[in-house]
Amino acid sequence: MAKEEADLLIENASELLTIRGGTEKPLLGKSMRDLGVIRDGSVAIRNGRVIAVGKTEKIKEEIESSEIIDASEKVVMPGFVDPHTHLVFAGSREDEFEMRIEGASYMEILRRGGGILKTVRETRRASKEELLESCRKTLDVMLEHGTTTVEAKSGYGLTTKDELKCLEVMKLANEEHPIEIVPTFLGAHAVPAEYKDNPDEYVNLITDEMILKVATRKQAEFCDVFCEKGVFDVEQSRRILLKGKEHGLKPKLHADEMTRLGGAELAAEMQAVSAEHLLFSSDDGLRAMAEQRAVAVLLPGAAFMLMMERYADARRMVELGVPVALGTDYNPSCLVESQQIVISLACLQMRMTPAEAIVAATINAAHAVNRSHDVGSLELGKRADIIVLNAPNHRFLGYRFGVNLVDKVIKDGRLVVDGVGRFKADS
Ligand code: ZN
Question: How far is the CA of 334 from the centre of ligand 1 (A)?
Answer without folding.
Answer: 10
